[in-house]
Amino acid sequence: MIVRDRPNLWDLLTALRGSIVPRIAVPVLVLAACATAVVVLDRITGAVPRLDGSAFAVFGIGLSLFLGFRNNAAYDRWWEARKLWGGLLADLRALAREAEVFVADTGARRAMLEAALDFIHAHRINLRGLPMRDAPRAGVVVLADAPHPPCAALDGLGALIAAGHRAGAVDGFGARSLTARIGGIAQQQAGCERIANSPLPFVYSLLIYRTSYLYCLLLPFALTATTGWATPLFVAVVGYMFLGLAEVTEELSHPFATSPNGIAMDAICRAAEISLAPHLGRVAPPPLAPVDHYLS
Amino acid sequence: MIVRDRPNLWDLLTALRGSIVPRIAVPVLVLAACATAVVVLDRITGAVPRLDGSAFAVFGIGLSLFLGFRNNAAYDRWWEARKLWGGLLADLRALAREAEVFVADTGARRAMLEAALDFIHAHRINLRGLPMRDAPRAGVVVLADAPHPPCAALDGLGALIAAGHRAGAVDGFGARSLTARIGGIAQQQAGCERIANSPLPFVYSLLIYRTSYLYCLLLPFALTATTGWATPLFVAVVGYMFLGLAEVTEELSHPFATSPNGIAMDAICRAAEISLAPHLGRVAPPPLAPVDHYLS
Amino acid sequence: MIVRDRPNLWDLLTALRGSIVPRIAVPVLVLAACATAVVVLDRITGAVPRLDGSAFAVFGIGLSLFLGFRNNAAYDRWWEARKLWGGLLADLRALAREAEVFVADTGARRAMLEAALDFIHAHRINLRGLPMRDAPRAGVVVLADAPHPPCAALDGLGALIAAGHRAGAVDGFGARSLTARIGGIAQQQAGCERIANSPLPFVYSLLIYRTSYLYCLLLPFALTATTGWATPLFVAVVGYMFLGLAEVTEELSHPFATSPNGIAMDAICRAAEISLAPHLGRVAPPPLAPVDHYLS
Amino acid sequence: MIVRDRPNLWDLLTALRGSIVPRIAVPVLVLAACATAVVVLDRITGAVPRLDGSAFAVFGIGLSLFLGFRNNAAYDRWWEARKLWGGLLADLRALAREAEVFVADTGARRAMLEAALDFIHAHRINLRGLPMRDAPRAGVVVLADAPHPPCAALDGLGALIAAGHRAGAVDGFGARSLTARIGGIAQQQAGCERIANSPLPFVYSLLIYRTSYLYCLLLPFALTATTGWATPLFVAVVGYMFLGLAEVTEELSHPFATSPNGIAMDAICRAAEISLAPHLGRVAPPPLAPVDHYLS
Amino acid sequence: MIVRDRPNLWDLLTALRGSIVPRIAVPVLVLAACATAVVVLDRITGAVPRLDGSAFAVFGIGLSLFLGFRNNAAYDRWWEARKLWGGLLADLRALAREAEVFVADTGARRAMLEAALDFIHAHRINLRGLPMRDAPRAGVVVLADAPHPPCAALDGLGALIAAGHRAGAVDGFGARSLTARIGGIAQQQAGCERIANSPLPFVYSLLIYRTSYLYCLLLPFALTATTGWATPLFVAVVGYMFLGLAEVTEELSHPFATSPNGIAMDAICRAAEISLAPHLGRVAPPPLAPVDHYLS
Q1: Which residues form a coiled coil (chains A, B, C, D, E) (predicted)?
Q2: How far apart are the C-alpha atoms of A166 and E84, rounded to whole Å?
Q3: Are D268 and D93 in contact (CB under 8 A)?
């Protein structure tokens, strides 16, 4: 996640970190070059066919419709992913407090919270597709061979509650509170996995990229007569808008990647460790700070 | 569900798998042919009536409005269907953990989880309208004659809980936890059946297809004067946009079909089997992998 | 509810069932006739004032905004109504399973489920404004004199639980589960009554119909110069789009009416009877089938 | 709330009740007069500056964007307010049934329901900013001096449950059910107070009214050349659309006012009295009927 | 939060408090000056390149799309923040009533409510990034050294419940009710922290500001031919619309800042103190009143 204040004049002119410009510079320049070629040809031969501007408007409206939809859908995925992680953090904090109330034995309680922290790290590593063996917690490394490590971590937490309930250390009220809390965690986990495993329909990507490129390639034929040598500039600006938006939405629709706009899951895992530290009798680690405006 | 990375240049030019082009190629070509005929007639007779471009813009806006609405509605249906299936997966995992806590007897617990797996398969088969007798699980085949097999599977699960509760093996807390979980499953099941049984209002399909075709058929009369021989190309691009979107939305609005964008219900059922395997004392099966970019 | 597959070419040309055409044919023809009169007058006198096309575009955008909003609002009402009925079905199924678990006595349990079926029929009849005395269930006819029959049916169900709880046949867990379920049903019932009793603000209807008609009446003055004798056709198409959408939204915003797009409440009540049949020890009735593409 | 059927032809031409026309007639006429002045000046002097129509289109799009947003936001506030009141009605009905189950003593139960009715009336009066002393219920008048009368009514209900719980008349299950229900009521109450106390950001009102007026004042300069004497008519229609929508949204965004589109809270309070009457052993009062199409 | 009635004519002309004008006056004037320079150059040299108006329309549509999206997203953040704070207020009121029911000892109950008030103030101070040591409550100042003061306050509340539960003063029903309520509070707290810590993606700010400025800088080249000396006025109006909206959305997207449209968290904390006063045996403080139309 990029953490920056609102852009000032200087940022507007120069910001590349967090900007989409570097990634679309090549295609935009290619489109501008094509536009230049069309204008040159038109000036030399005078035989370049000319398209109608008002018909082009309809074309542009259709394109806005595609891009507008995809932008909303991608942003919704990103924001839902963030909501789910915020909810997981709240559920971990609530779990700690409920364990405090319903589990008298400190050791059993702490084992549950360690399992919960194992879960959140395994969940993060699983969503990012990283190797589970490199996890920063021993409890997670142990789960590396499980068919589904985050589920295994929650199963472990469930087994602790089951053992406590059978031993009489956790009464019915406690068992119900704690399992309901884990049920809520499982819902949010499944929500994250849904976003990670179900990309936006591929057909939209094809429709949008194909239409955007066609539009920018045909635009010079509509502009050359009226706009002349400013056509390439215009095509570049329109290309910047449309390809830039397509690129942003591509990135936002994968909120668990380690891209500039990915969810700062490392920071949220750390926040969970900070919030659970008092319950575990530990000193809280410091919160993660952004490096070069980027929070992982 | 089509599982592909973002399209690169080559994909943009050639991708047909997951593309909508094959299905709309014929009508788009017919529309382009009509446009060609209009241009030819205009060049020969000079008496073809000409329509006004700016009035056409209004027409296009109305059409964008229809298509934009239908696109959002269809995508919402698809995404809600995916959410419901993600929620079912989470509920099955939570059910397994709650059974672990509240049902001490391993045999009774496993019978409940088998019933839950029967349910999810029967639900999948029911949504797809497939024959229940061909189900991969014996427990589902048994239900084939029930008036509503998925409900019968959940009824069976409920009966196990009722029997356990009356025998004293499941206490009040457990009965309440487990029935509440089944209540949640029933809500998500009903949500899926709602989407499957209530298509988008038919009248929208008529309005959209009729207006799209009329628009593309009238467009040449507006373009021929200014755009000339490029008119058929233009009509084809606009037809690709509008008919392509209509086709995509038709497909997304039926998320339980076995179309390229259908929900990957087989894969989710398998994910449920993987997650429940440790609770059933089984070895987890491997996750389903996409075949030719397609995950069923 | 109209149940049809996606329209094929023949349907596009001919479908009237589920189409909006029959209801808007008269006003659209009147608008086209007015347009013809304007063109004729213009050709004869040459003194017909001409309006500017680009200014008209703004007008059209405003109109799209109204229609787009109303379309979304109406569809949301329709879809929410469908969701509520799907939720009621799920709640009835869950109630049956919870009664199975928490109410040991078969007679008491069945009385509860009969009361639940009375409720859903009374609720349906109440939403449609039909006479309660013609209900197909004796239990509903009995309630015809109650100030609010659906509430009376749920009150009866509540009284059964209260009696069972006081007699010791339903323990605290059961009482809490069953009353919570009835509370959920009451929320969905109130949601339906909200939609039935709170139409879309009347002022929108006025704004939209007045603006649509004004637009179509003024349009010929903008088109006559450029579009000539094709003006009436154009006005008819625009009128079809705008009045058609206004008509569809009028219908969808009243989802409990017996219109072609009304919620198929009869079919859902039947589905509830099917799902509850095994719990009542009855043979399940067959599901309702659409008649002439229409499911009531 | 205005209760009318869909407008027929006569209504379209004449309806003022529920129409926005009377409130915006003066500014629309002033705008039309300004437009007339511009046309006259242009005809006399020929020196009136002329603005470009296509640039105006952009301006209009921006304005549609503002109005579209505000319309959605205002309607969402109105519909959410209606949802919250529907939810309160359902919660009161559920409370009555839960009290029936968990509170054996009729007197104690009825006292609770009276407190709930006191709450809903106090809540209505509080939202409308009316004097609490004029309330139609003695139980509400008593609360007039409390710092927050609706909270005081719910506190009273809570105190009854607390007393019953300590006296053993309400067991743990009942206490939990009833307090959870009151918690739900408190959430919906806070939702209503949020809408009442947090208007739409004032800055939007400024932006929209300023831009609408500027637009309508500048429009004649764009139209005079092409549209001539029809310009004032056109300006009046555009002013009707834009100012009318601004006015409607102003009204809908204050859903608790006694305006034509305000929530019919009197009718809902009455519906609560009707639903609770059997539980209180009373004869249900008749439902409120609209007066001159208006339901308060 | 700005608290004003709807603007009258005088406000429309003069209102600066709550207006966005002061903050965008400089860039708008600069843009108008640039436009004037272009017109002057065009009149003197006649060699200024001219851009096509209809192509500009597409550009404007793209921009509307960006601004429309950002406006919706920013408003949703603001409104969600307001919802969360309304929910916190409701939860505090419900907590007080549940404590009344489930905690017989007045001292223990009041200690819990004090901890809840500590939490809400610590939460407010934390969201605004103010120094915790300057808090108006001693209970908050004590938490200043905790790694996360609002969590520490809720942990304190949880510890009180745990102690009461172990001492037998709070039974299982009470422990479950109260911990569930704190769990709900934790969810809303995490929601607020999510909004505070996850700004809108920075890339949108860059795209929008860059495109808005480019648009306004290029606009004179499109208008100078047709609009002449009115071009600077037009550019200023368009700049007012686009930059004004960008500024409003910047502000709304940070709902916890002390800006004119920030959430009135001081007032809500005071409302919580008023609602809890009777439960704490205190005289309720007066509600906060706006100062110069501003409620902090």
Answers
A1: none
A2: 39
A3: no
Non-local (6+) Cβ contacts of C175 within 8 A are C161, C164, C165, D101, D102, D173, D177
**B67: CB partners within 8 A, 6+ apart:** A62, A65, B208, B212, B242, B245, B246, B249
φ/ψ of A255, rounded to 5, equals -70, -10
How many CB contacts within 8 angstroms connect chain C with chain D?
189
Contacts of E242 in chain A (CB under 8 A): none
Question: Which chains reach chain D with 3 or more Cβ–Cβ distances below 8 angstroms?
Answer: C, E
What are the residue boundaries of the structural domains of chain C, listed by start? 23-280
In Å, how far are A104, A107, C147 from A160, measured between CA atoms? 14, 11, 53
Q: Which residues of B touch C86 (CB under 8 A)?
A: 190-191, 193-194
Compute how many other C-beta atoms are within 10 angstroms of the C-beta atom of residue B34: 16
- D1 CB neighbour count, 10 Å cutoff: 23
| Residue C254 with chain D: CB contacts under 8 Å | none
Tens place of pLDDT for every residue, chain E, 296 residues? 777 766 676 766 666 666 778 888 899 999 999 999 999 998 888 777 777 666 676 677 778 788 889 999 999 999 999 999 999 999 999 999 999 999 999 999 999 999 999 999 999 999 999 999 988 899 999 999 999 999 999 999 999 999 999 999 999 999 999 999 999 999 999 999 999 999 998 888 888 888 888 888 888 888 887 777 888 888 888 888 888 888 888 889 999 998 888 999 999 999 999 999 999 999 999 999 988 888 88
Tell me how far apart the alpha carbons of residues B231 and B216 are, in angstroms, rounded to a whole number. 11
C171 to B166: CB separation less than 8 angstroms, yes or no: no
Cα C49 from Cα E80, distance rounded (Å): 51
Residue located via tokens 């019932």? C189
Contact state of D203 with E18 under an 8 Å Cβ cutoff? yes
Does this complex have an ipTM over 0.90?
Answer: yes
> Residue B260: its chain A contacts at CB < 8 A?
203
Euclidean distance between CA atoms C165 and D102, whole angstroms:
8
- State the Cα–Cα distance between residues D83 and D191, nearest whole angstrom: 10
Min distance C259 CA to chain D CA atoms (Å): 15
E10-41 b/e (C-beta count within 10 Å ≥ 16 → b):
ebeeebeebbbbeebeebbeebbebbbebbee
Q: Cα separation of A208 and A65, whole Å?
A: 10
Q: Chain D residues with CB inside 8 Å of E284's CB?
A: 147-148
Q: What distance separates the 2 farthest-apart alpha carbons in chain C? A: 92
Say how far apart CA C18 and CA D89 lie, in whole Å.
36
Residue in B closest to C75 by C-alpha: B73
Under DSSP, the state recorded for C229 is G
Range E146-167 burial, b when 16+ CB lie within 10 A, else e: bbbbbbbbbbbbbebbbebbee
Whether residue D175 and residue E102 make contact (CB cut-off 8 A), yes or no, is: yes
- State whether B234 and A55 contact (CB < 8 Å): yes
Which own/partner contact pairs does C124-130 have at CB distance under 8 Å and 24+ positions apart?
Answer: C124/C265, C124/C266, C124/C269, C125/C149, C126/C150, C126/C193, C127/C192, C127/C193, C127/C196, C127/C256, C127/C265, C128/C256, C128/C257, C128/C258, C128/C265
Chains touching C, CB cut-off 8 Å, 3+ pairs = B, D
Task: Judge whether C81 and C256 are in contact, CB under 8 Å.
Answer: yes
Does the distance separating the beta carbons of E2 and D55 come in below 8 Å? no
Residues of B in contact with C238 (CB under 8 A): 58-59, 62
Residue of A6, A9, A16, A105 to mutate, testing the E interface (most E Cβ within 10 Å of its Cβ): A6
CA-angle at A251, arms to A250 and A252, nearest 5°: 100
CA of D1 vs chain C CAs: smallest distance (Å): 8
- D70 → chain E, closest CA residue: E72
